[in-house]
Design a protein that fits this description.
- The structure holds two protein chains of two kinds.
- By secondary structure, chain A is mainly beta.
- Chain A has no helices and eleven strands.
- By secondary structure, chain B is mainly β.
- In chain B, the strands form two sheets. In chain B, strands 2, 4, 5, 6, 9, 10 and 11 form a seven-stranded mixed β-sheet that branches.
- The chains are: A mainly beta, B mainly beta.
- At the A-B interface, strand 5 and strand 10 of A face strand 5 and strand 10 of B.
Chain lengths: ~120, ~110
């Protein structure tokens, strides 16, 4: 059974970089069959896909966030990470990591979510 | 970007009743690549349906999906206590992949 777990600071100051890591267990992140995504949910709102990374390190980002987002991979630790620069209060959200297929981007496994608040 | 609009925002029903949730896309969804997720408080979303009408593993047959093009529907034929939750549609036919804003099914 694949499990994903987010970790990182719950509080980030405005203008700083929001950083989160997702640790994957029960399966290898190096499998060529999946994309590894970040998705966020603003308080009481819907879901927003941020971007994904493939096993080879290829990335694709939501154009609305592309200028501030970096997703990277650490296969030795079976982890992938999110960095969102120049954070503002509008980036306050629950951040989820999730797995999808590469043929169809359906999210079948999710982490439990990590609340990040951007505030001074 | 395809915008998904879900209605109603909230559905107040009793256990045993039928729930009908709508998801309308701003443009046609390629290959009817439309999915539905269920989210309960404090939990991550759970995949229910894909390709508009196919159930994910372990999803009971009282939950069904239909539709094509720009109009899609999720139907729960007889609400069980565990069905009261928020439901989101997601299109995966064209990038960026987008979600609707959700429909909350609450106990009347």
């Amino acid at each position: 059974q694949v499990q994903l777990q987010e970790s990182g600071p719950g509080l980030v100051k405005p203008s700083q970089t929001l950083s989160l890591t997702c640790t994957v267990s029960g399966g290898s992140i190096s499998s060529g069959r999946y994309y590894w995504s970040w998705i966020r949910q603003h308080p009481g709102k819907g879901l927003e896909w941020i971007g994904y990374i493939s096993y080879s390190g290829r990335t694709y980002y939501n154009p609305s966030l592309q200028s501030r987002v970096t997703i990277s991979l650490d296969t030795s630790k079976n982890q992938f990470s999110l960095k969102l620069s120049s954070a503002t209060a509008a980036d306050t959200a629950v951040y989820y990591c999730a797995r999808s297929g590469i043929v169809v981007v359906l999210f079948d496994y999710w982490g439990q979510g990590s609340l990040v608040t951007v505030s001074s | 970007e395809i915008v998904l609009m879900q209605s109603p925002g909230t559905l107040s029903l009793s256990p045993g009743e039928r729930a009908t949730l709508s998801c309308r896309a701003s443009q046609s969804v390629n290959s009817n690549f439309l999915a539905w997720y269920q989210q309960k408080p404090g939990q991550a979303p759970r995949l229910l349906m894909y390709a508009a009408s196919s159930r994910a593993t372990g999803i009971p047959d009282r939950i069904s999906g239909s539709g094509s093009g720009t109009d899609f529907t999720l139907t729960i034929s007889r609400l069980e206590p565990e069905d009261f939750a928020v439901y989101y549609c997601q299109q995966y036919g064209s990038s960026p992949w987008t979600f609707g804003q959700g429909t909350k099914v609450e106990i009347k």
